[in-house]
Amino acid sequence: MIKVFGKIRYHWQPDIALSIVYWCFTFSIGFVSIIFTLEKTHIYWLTFFLIFIFLILCVLGMHRYFWIEEDGGQLHIVSLWLKHRADIAISSITKILISPHGIVIFSEKWENGRIYYMRRWHREPFIRDLTSQSSFCGRLENIEKITYEKQK
Fold first, then answer.
1. Which of 51, 66, 86, 139 has the most Cβ atoms closer than 10 angstroms to its Cβ?
2. Domain tally for the chain?
């Protein structure tokens, strides 16, 4: 949970397989840039280019978060990838499954739910702040782990 420009952000990651592939690719570019830096004795343009690509991928990977609009009753899901971006009314949320590693949000828009992996220090304040909204009328359920069968 991070407060930026008066809005509290709750960071999340997408599907675990996609996250692993994405971050492995990002850090391998970072390691290759470090290797090029240590191999050359003079300034090398490819090193700066790879470091720049590494930093851009890190920013893109960290730009996934929720924020709750206090007076409008909206939950904003922010991501640079259009597939994950959404704005939903808090009143349309029917159920939230809570596991030790993330949450599954069910709404009128997503009948099968959407999975968001979150760390505990982002998940707990997010659930607390979401359920404290007056327009929230869904139910909460605790589950052991997130599987695709539990979403139905």
1. 66
2. 1
Q: Which residues of 45-66 are buried (b: 16+ CB within 10 A; e: fewer)?
A: eebeebbeebeebeeeeeebbb
Cα(74)–Cα(71) distance, integer angstroms: 8
Query: Is there a domain that residue 45 lies in?
Result: no
pTM for the whole structure: 0.75
In a domain, 90, yes or no: yes
36 — pLDDT class (breaks 50, 70, 90): confident
Q: How far apart are CA 116 and CA 65, in angstroms?
A: 10
C-beta of residue 145 within 8 angstroms of C-beta of residue 100: yes
Task: Look at the block and give the residue holding tokens 């990002």.
Answer: 26
Residues 6+ apart with CB under 8 A from 122: 1, 10, 11, 12
Q: Mean pLDDT, to the nearest integer, of 114-135?
A: 87
Domain span at 100: 81-151
Beta strands in the chain (DSSP E): 2-4, 7-11, 64-69, 74-79, 86-89, 93-98, 102-107, 114-117, 139-142
Please, what's the largest Cα pairwise distance for the chain? Answer: 63
Q: Which residues pair with 64 in a beta bridge?
A: 79
Domain assignment present for 92: yes
